[in-house]
Design a protein that fits this description.
Length: 490
């Protein structure tokens, strides 16, 4: 998995990569960033008749923008530069080199003499990861000018004014797209910055894995390439018992939909045998809605016969504490805890030590707040998630636009898959079924969580391509098989 480094580490990473790769200078890395950006830009099918303005700072972010200006002009785009610096003497060495190679077709507007186009595209290459402290008055003025633009705004690496690792405190550019290089800077995945970042794109520019080795980080970025090695392989002699016997506990009257979605997703993910435990009165519903699943009711059956257990979807909280306590005393293998089971833990914290070590908890922000207390912001929430995971030796899957998996060793993994259209009732129940399925197949709890979260997000992406905001949790389930095809998982 890709480390997410702090803003202060990025320049050191670039230097280390240049040393290890044998490149002559950091200018070659800047060119790689510009080439990757332009390839993405061309794939967006922006019309070549669309005017492109690039706001350029004096540092390396500005150097990236100048390189992009040269490359886009070669594709016949009408490009102009909006200088955010007083004199070319203030440019960094790499930025100056790119400035000198600008073709004559690129028009340059000096600072204070901008002429913003009324439409088109504005690329923000003003301030990058090197931002420290508060903005100067002239920088605030420039950012306000950029925010007056009515067309499409694309920010390179970070929206200008946004710190790499902290919450925004000053004026910030509002982006339609933010194109970050190698990994998303931490501030780009915070919900408080959603309206600033716009659509987040992460591009690789060829920095070697060896260059990252010397840098420490608690945050990692989960990508498609990481998933295949986490999966177990099964052969043609494998039978349904090898693919896991799972028990799903939930579904009080009026909430059977949650358990149905959970069961269907576990089966679609590949569980060999699924048993649903619910109220006696609801057993006919599950056997009609999910004929592939078995049903049980009354007292929870001997849980030791199951390879994995997921508990909570639609379970309710009334008169469940004693049953939950007895279950936790009887079953000592890692489990998946969701929904009402999380709410029971929040109201009865004495049960938390009874939860088997390395179990996977899957709260959304509201459930997490009830469990550990409210947070003033997402950075604080992530810190609380890390501490809770470490202190209790549990895995916490904090669900959201960029789901973050906090592991007992202190690592926090930011998921890259998913879409805004997954904000729909039942989506979390689908995830619970998927993680429980992987746990039942013999995956380690960590790998079950990582695979479940990534495949869940990817299924949402696939389903949303034809459904968009009308997508339902059932659509996510039906897209699960395609995730295996996309990732070449047999």
């Amino acid at each position: 998995m890709q480390k997410i480094l702090s803003g202060t580490q990025v320049s050191e990473l670039d230097k280390r990569h240049v040393e290890l790769s044998g490149q002559k200078s950091s200018h070659e890395l800047m060119e790689a960033a510009a080439l990757a950006f332009v390839e993405w830009f061309l794939n967006q099918k922006f019309s070549a008749d669309t005017p492109v303005q690039i706001a350029v700072g004096k540092g390396n972010n500005g150097g990236d923008g100048l390189a992009v200006a040269r490359l886009l002009s070669e594709y016949s785009y009408k490009v102009s530069i909006l200088c955010c610096f007083e004199s070319i003497d203030s440019l960094s060495l790499d930025a100056l080199e790119n400035y000198k190679t600008l073709p004559q077709s690129v028009r340059i507007y000096t600072k204070g003499n901008w002429e913003l186009a009324e439409e088109g595209i504005l690329i923000d290459a003003f301030l990058g990861v090197g931002l420290k402290g508060s903005l100067r008055a002239d920088a605030i003025d420039l950012i306000n000018r950029i925010n007056e633009f009515k067309g499409t705004v694309v920010c390179m690496d970070l929206p200008s004014g946004l710190p790499s690792d902290k919450l925004a405190s000053d004026t910030v550019v509002y982006a339609d797209y933010t194109v970050s290089f190698e990994f998303p800077k931490l501030s780009l995945v915070l919900p408080e910055h959603a309206n600033l970042v716009g659509e987040l794109v992460v591009l690789k520019i060829g920095i070697s894995s060896e260059a990252y080795a010397e840098f420490n980080s608690a945050f990692y970025f989960l990508e498609a390439k990481d998933i295949s090695p986490l999966h177990r392989s099964f052969n043609r002699f494998s039978y349904k018992g090898d693919l896991g016997k799972v028990l799903l506990i939930g579904g009080e009257p009026g909430k059977m939909g949650a358990l149905i979605l959970c069961a269907k997703s576990a089966l679609r993910t590949g569980s060999g045998l699924v048993t649903c435990h619910m109220e006696d009165s609801e057993r006919f519903i599950i056997q009609t809605a999910v004929p592939e699943a078995m049903a049980s009711w009354g007292l929870i059956p001997n849980p030791e016969i199951y390879d994995a257990v997921g508990i909570g979807p639609g379970w309710g909280t009334e008169n469940r504490v004693r049953m939950f306590r007895q279950f936790l005393q009887d079953y000592r293998n890692p489990i998946v805890v969701d929904a009402d089971a999380l709410n029971i833990l929040a109201k009865n914290p004495d049960l938390i030590p009874l939860v088997p070590k390395n179990s996977v908890l899957t709260p959304h922000i509201g459930e997490f707040s009830r469990l550990v207390g409210s947070s003033p912001n997402h950075l604080d929430r992530l810190d609380r998630a890390r501490k809770f995971a470490v202190e209790n030796e549990l895995i916490v899957v904090l669900k959201g636009a960029n789901t973050v998996i906090s592991l007992p060793d202190g690592k926090q993994v930011v998921n890259s898959s998913g879409t805004k259209y997954m904000a729909t009732g039942g989506s979390g129940d689908v995830l619970t079924g998927m993680i429980t399925a992987y746990l039942g197949m013999g995956y380690s709890p960590e790998n079950a969580a990582l695979c479940g979260v990534y495949h869940h997000g990817l299924a949402g992406e696939i389903a949303s391509q034809s459904k968009r905001r009308s997508m339902t949790a059932s659509d996510i389930i039906e897209a699960i098989p395609e995730t295996y095809i996309r990732l070449n998982i047999s």
